[in-house]
Write a structure and sequence with these properties.
single chain, five-stranded mixed β-sheet
């Protein structure tokens, strides 16, 4: 995992403007392509910052300030996006990784740890998600035994349906990304 003091453009200016509009500390639990590229170094493009939650709950304000279609989105061509189709492992908050610590006055970006990030992509499992997980595995950010353990202990009990399909997805990932 690489550590960067501050993001590259347009993210640097975008987040600086978001921070300037905040009057209190806001913690954004980030996931998705932004984290895959900026924290874990996977080469791909993304124009949004997916986030699972925001503390305190000022999601509506953040989306108004920097969501899709906002003035900041129009200016920088990037935006914040509240994720509604991802289920992270139960205790993911305990493993959040700070991104760009100290770069802003109020804005705090916290990223999903690599295994939690991969598991948050399991339900949707589209090609881009599989590619991200494969790249994280190839780069050595994932260990199959940790992925399996977190899936069965922290994710599977919270999935609402299709457990057999998700079990199969995990098994296919393990066999494909860590062949024996």
């Amino acid at each position: 995992m690489r550590r960067i003091e501050e993001p590259t453009e347009p993210w640097r200016s975008f987040f600086a403007e978001v921070d300037g509009r905040l009057s209190e500390d806001v913690y954004l639990h980030c996931c998705g392509g932004f984290v895959v590229t900026q924290l874990y170094g996977v080469a791909r493009t993304t124009s949004d910052v997916d986030f699972l939650s925001v503390v305190p709950n000022v999601q509506r304000d953040l989306i108004e300030i920097a969501g899709k279609g906002s003035r900041l989105h129009q200016k920088y061509k990037v935006y914040l996006d509240a994720v509604t189709v991802a289920t992270p492992p139960e205790n993911y908050e305990e493993r959040l990784v700070p991104m760009y610590a100290g770069a802003w006055v109020h804005l705090r970006l916290e990223a999903l740890e690599a295994h939690d990030l991969a598991l948050s992509k399991l339900e949707r499992n589209i090609e881009r998600d599989r590619d991200d997980v494969q790249q994280l595995a190839r780069a050595g950010h994932l260990k199959p035994e940790i992925l399996r353990e977190r899936y069965y202990n922290e994710l599977r009990p919270n999935l609402l349906a299709h457990e057999a399909r998700h079990d199969l997805t995990l098994q296919l990932w393990l066999e494909s990304y860590w062949p024996a």
